[in-house]
Specification:
398 residues; alpha/beta; eight-stranded mixed β-sheet
Length: 398
């Protein structure tokens, strides 16, 4: 039998994940004994944030009660009921279906898989979360990014969206609050997105996983709440608001005109049945999280807002950088006066041990350079990191 190499499928060649790709370099630097300052991963548990005890108790109780077999494909009924009540409190009406998934990421992939055929496209925010480009490659879809306007607080550029729609465009994605910019979409922007979607018969995929992490007393508005007839799937989950990303519990809330959604949701449910179910015992944490003690969420918002303010003040003192102040989530995307943000992040890491994620890993307008950092670390870590960054940039030779 002839020897041969097993080749990876072509659909995998364009799959990149800058958030974790930088860790390959970090591991090399760690071997030199240099202290590493992690500002790259959006996992609150890595830092000084903990999952609330009552959420842990609910999951543990379910395990002890032997709720360890498979659940229904769409999730346990008490969990789905709690999600429905949560959605209705946010003003989402005309709900057609609710399904619990292995993180919001699985819900997103299932919906894109159920909707788009090879060669189709969806409008994806840029900068945006790399999961979407990974799914795009896996499904052999055509890229169709739309830009967020940095000069307008990173709001989606509605005119750019209109220009990008073509006969094979099937959906618009909005991440609100946005990862990686921390921006919060205005009601006017959300209404504009709905108008475009209704005009062109597009599904809206509203990624609202950070919907409770909002700063400065502002309020998050769910896009689906603004028009009960608009075809929308709203994604959320336990990972960010409730500090348990490792639970991998997310969900999708499908709302809008039932006739328009019917065939699409049949496809979604065929996929849901084929992969059996999300983690059964951990689904029992959903009612406890959504309807139990909410004090931890308020404390987390206060902590994140304080750390955002510290970061913003530190960045304002660095001449080579500027930042649109984040309004939510736990990310920020400063612009930095360098020619190549990927090279800059690697050079910075090797010199100082500060780990950032280059802006090109999230998509950015040509000719611009950015990096993403998280505001999750303690204040002393953020202060130390930005002092290093400022000193590094003062002498950086491009």
């Amino acid at each position: 039998m002839a020897d041969y190499d097993l080749k990876s499928a072509e659909r995998t060649l364009n799959i990149k994940y800058a958030i974790r790709d930088i860790i390959v370099v970090a591991d090399e630097v760690a071997k030199t004994g240099k202290e590493l300052l992690y500002l790259n991963i959006g996992d609150p548990n890595v830092y000084d944030h903990k999952t609330p005890q009552h959420i842990l108790d609910a999951a543990y109780k379910a395990m002890c009660e032997n709720k360890n077999g498979y659940s229904a494909s769409s999730g346990i009924q008490p969990g789905r009921d709690a999600i429905r009540r949560y959605a209705e409190k946010k003003g989402i009406k005309n709900i057609q279906d609710i399904f619990i998934t292995t993180g919001a990421s699985e819900a997103i992939e299932i919906c894109l898989t159920a909707l788009l055929n090879r060669g189709d496209n969806f409008l994806m925010p840029t900068p945006g979360y790399p999961l979407y480009t990974a799914i795009q490659s896996k499904l052999e879809l055509e890229p169709n990014p739309y830009y967020l306007d940095e000069e307008n607080g990173w709001q989606p550029d509605l005119e750019d969206i209109r220009k990008k729609i073509n006969p094979r465009t099937k959906a618009i994605v909005i991440i609100n609050p946005n990862n990686p910019t921390g921006s919060l979409a205005s009601i006017e922007t959300l209404k504009g997105l709905i108008d475009i979607a209704m005009e062109h018969n597009l599904l809206i995929l509203a990624d609202e996983i950070y919907d409770q992490l909002i700063f400065d007393g502002e309020k998050h508005v769910s896009l689906a709440s603004l028009n009960p007839d608009a075809p929308v799937v709203t994604f959320c989950g336990l990972s960010k608001n409730y500090v348990c990303p490792g639970f991998r519990i997310g969900w999708g809330i499908a709302s809008g005109n039932s006739a328009r959604m019917k065939d699409f949701l049949e496809g979604v449910n065929r996929i849901l049945r084929s992969r059996l179910c999300a983690n059964h015992p951990l689904q029992w944490a959903i009612p406890a999280a959504l309807e139990g003690d909410q004090s931890n969420v308020g404390k987390l918002v206060q902590t994140l807002q304080r750390r955002r303010d510290i970061s913003y003040d530190l960045i304002s003192k660095i001449p080579q950088m500027s930042l649109v102040k984040p309004k939510g989530a736990f990310y920020a995307l400063p612009s930095v006066d360098v020619k190549d943000d990927a090279k800059f992040c690697v050079d910075l890491l090797r010199k100082t041990g500060v780990i950032l994620v280059p802006g090109n890993g999230f998509g950015e307008k040509p000719g611009t350079s950015h990096f993403r950092f998280v505001i999750l670390p303690p204040e002393d870590v953020l202060t130390k990191a930005f002092n290093y960054i400022g000193d590094f940039l003062a002498d950086y030779k491009q």
